[in-house]
Amino acid sequence: MTPTGSDVAAFLGQPADPATVAMAGQTLPIVEAMARAYTRDRGFTDDGPEPDVAAVLVTATARMMTNPGQIARDSTAGPFSESIRGGFVGWSLAETFVLNRYRKRSL
User: What are the residue boundaries of the structural domains of the chain, listed by start?
Assistant: First the structure.
């Protein structure tokens, strides 16, 4: 079954937040396209991705949503500051283990 924006929002602990569901719904197809390219469409069927690939889509989408612009930024409010660097720079180690099961490599 293909994950939805609601699945990602639930993973993030915000299942009832419409903004999170909407952002996840917009981000998920991007992550799915990258996963399809990485595996050359292996691990995907007409019914959707394999369950372990679906889990990768959810976790990677959640990470990408933390910095959707993928641009470093600094925020300051009084004595508090926040610095966000980087963004989605590739699959996590655990995600790579899953996707490599399906990846077709050339010799």
Answer: 5-100
